UniProtKB/TrEMBL annotation:
It comes from the Bacteria. Keywords: Membrane, Transducer, Transmembrane, Transmembrane helix. InterPro entries: HAMP_dom, MCPsignal_dom. Residues 257-295 form the HAMP domain. Belongs to the methyl-accepting chemotaxis (MCP) protein family. PANTHER family: LYSOZYME-LIKE PROTEIN-RELATED, METHYL-ACCEPTING CHEMOTAXIS PROTEIN MCPB. Residues 300-564 form the Methyl-accepting transducer domain. The chain crosses the membrane at residues 15-39, 45-67, 104-127, 133-154, 187-207, 219-242. This is Methyl-accepting chemotaxis protein.
Length: 600
């Protein structure tokens, strides 16, 4: 409050309290003293004089109250009030709430000094009788309750003008800090004041009349006057009580009306110390809590709405990624199926290669046996050279058989060469297959690392097979050359057999050379046999590895199928999340629209 309003409030409160005293209490008190003491007209004037002197003399107490109230209200000046701490502000507000109760001290001091002073001034002019003195003693019982209650309600009404100012209205207070003067106590003391004045005044007069303690003149008029003054006091008292209750109730009702319309911006001023005042604290605490909850709900609903939109955006991207992943999984599955088919084809080729190498091994064994036979035959020819002349025909037949056998050997060697070339072509295909498998394993990423190792091993085996095939081919080529040479030699032998007799020495030498050549052929056949055995083992390993690769590719295909199913499920799950985010965003928007009903 500014300085002008502070002075205005102090004057209005002081004048209002003194009007209650001078207009209501003093006339009632004087009338009671005059009637109850059966004062004469002259002495009645002295009673009025004494009361007037005492009234003006006792104004020192209202002056002190005026100055203290002004000092207290000066602290509520906005410029000064804002510089205070929260505890200091709460202390000022608490002092204002306690003022109506503390004002009773000023009232008691003023009347406790004023009544004896009025009696003292009055009795300076004459010596009172017991009947004239007794009303002064009974006067506090008549006046104090009514005047105390009326002062309390008027002070509370005036101070409420300060408590509803913006500086003090929203200032929080703990309910335990505020002294409580409940509605029950207010009604009780109000009714007690009314009955106290009525019973004291009329009861004393009736008792005096009955006991003839005093002789009241014109009793009917006297009782009517007393009843009129008592009625005025009761009316003023109850009006103040109702006005105080009504002002507080209107404040609460207006606030409830605002709350019903969702307005949380205002709080209820604490203007009394009764249940309504204490209820205002609870209501303000409730409003503050609703404000916080509403602010949190608004903030969280905005966050939920924003997060739901972000999640929806991300789930859309995730859905696209899942679709791409599903497509990649399908492509990978198709690639694995093709690779499995290729591996199965490789396994079939490896099995066929194994069969061919076994057949080649058997042919080499047969060739070895033939060469051994040739070698034995050459030895026999060498030992029986001397008998060659007599057995020419038999020798010619033997040479013809030898020529046929050499042709067979040559055919076998050529077949062996063809078989080895087939093995070489298979090795090339294995190399290409391992290269394709490595490429597919690289495309498969982490899932194809194991298969990449297998493909590398197959490549190595293919290279070894190709190397061994070249060596065998070289050996077979030599064997073929040797076989051709042998066949040519036998053919020449047959042509020149008629000259055996003349060329025995030459024939013996040729037979020796043939024997050496057969020994070499045996060595070559032995090497070919060993290489073919190695080739057979390699073919068996290739067949075993390709079978394992086929099993691995089938398991990989199953895994990819499982991944594809999981991707489809995850895609459906992400779609559900997308729908849920959309629903959550709608609910957050609805919640925000609902909570916007409250104005904070």
């Amino acid at each position: 409050m500014n300085e002008a309003k502070i002075k205005s409030l102090c004057w209005r409160l002081t004048i209002g309290l003194e009007l209650l005293t001078a207009v209501l209490a003093v006339p009632t008190a004087v009338l009671f003293i005059v009637i109850a003491g059966v004062y004469s007209f002259e002495r009645s004037l002295l009673v009025v004089l004494g009361a007037t002197i005492a009234l003006f003399t006792s104004y020192i107490v209202p002056t002190i109250r005026f100055l203290r109230l002004k000092k207290l209200l000066t602290n509520t000046n906005p410029d000064f009030f804002q510089s205070l701490s929260l505890e200091e502000k709460q202390k000022i507000k608490l002092t204002l709430l306690k003022f109506p109760k503390h004002n009773l001290g000023y009232f008691l001091t003023q009347w406790s000094f004023g009544i004896p002073l009025a009696a003292f001034v009055t009795f300076q002019f004459f010596t009172p009788t017991l009947a004239e003195y007794l009303p002064y003693i009974i006067l506090p019982i008549l006046i104090y309750p009514v005047l105390g209650v009326s002062h309390f309600f008027l002070s509370e009404l005036m101070i409420s003008e300060v408590l509803i100012t913006p500086e003090l209205k929203d200032l929080p207070l703990n309910a335990d800090m505020i002294p409580k003067v409940g509605i029950y106590a207010r009604i009780f003391f109000t009714m007690s004041a009314v009955f106290s004045m009525t019973l004291t005044a009329l009861g004393y007069l009736l008792l005096a009349e009955v006991t003839k303690f005093v002789q009241i003149q014109n009793a009917e008029v006297t009782l009517v006057l007393m009843a009129a003054f008592i009625t005025i006091n009761i009316f003023v008292l109850t009006s103040l009580f109702v006005k105080a209750m009504r002002f507080n109730t209107i404040q609460m009702a207006n606030r409830y009306k605002s709350l019903a319309s969702g307005d949380l911006s205002e709080s209820v001023p604490i203007i009394s110390t009764d249940e309504l005042g204490h209820g205002s604290i609870s209501l303000n605490s409730f409003i503050t809590s609703i404000r916080k909850i509403t602010s949190v709900v608004i903030e969280e609903s905005d966050k939920v709405n924003s997060d739901a939109k972000v999640i929806a955006t991300q789930t859309q991207g995730l859905t696209q990624a899942m679709m791409e992943q599903a497509s990649s999984s399908e492509e990978m599955s198709a690639g694995v199926e093709e690779m499995s088919a290729s591996i199965r084809s490789t396994a079939f080729g490896a099995k066929k290669q194994n069969d061919i190498t076994k057949e080649a091994k058997n042919l080499v064994i047969d060739m070895e046996s033939s060469i051994v036979s040739i070698h034995d035959l050459m030895n026999l020819t060498e030992t029986e050279t001397k008998q060659m002349e007599g057995e020419t025909k038999l020798g010619q037949s033997a040479l013809h058989s030898t020529l046929v056998a050499m042709s067979d050997i040559e055919s076998s060697v050529e077949n062996t060469s063809n078989v080895i070339q087939v093995i070489g072509e298979i090795s090339d295909k294995i190399g290409l297959l391992s290269l394709n498998a490595s490429i597919e394993a690289a495309r498969a990423g982490d899932a194809g690392r194991g298969f990449a190792v297998v493909a590398s091993e197959i490549s190595k085996l293919g290279e070894q097979t190709l190397s061994n095939t070249k060596r065998i081919l070289e050996a077979v080529s030599k064997a073929s050359s040797s076989t051709k040479s042998g066949r040519l030699a036998v053919s020449n032998t047959e042509k020149t057999f008629t000259q055996i007799g003349k060329s025995v020495h030459t024939t013996i030498e040729l037979i020796k050379q043939s024997s050496e050549m057969t020994k070499q052929q045996l060595e070559l056949v032995k090497h070919v046999k060993e290489n073919i055995e190695k080739l057979t083992m390699s073919a068996m390993e290739i067949e075993q590895n390709t079978n394992e690769q086929a099993s691995t590719s089938e398991e990989l295909a199953k895994s990819i199928a499982t991944i594809t199913e999981g991707t489809e499920y995850l895609n459906q799950f992400v779609s559900d999340i997308d729908k849920l985010c959309s629903a959550l965003s709608n609910k957050a928007s609805n919640l925000r629209q609902t909570i916007d009903f409250f104005k904070i």
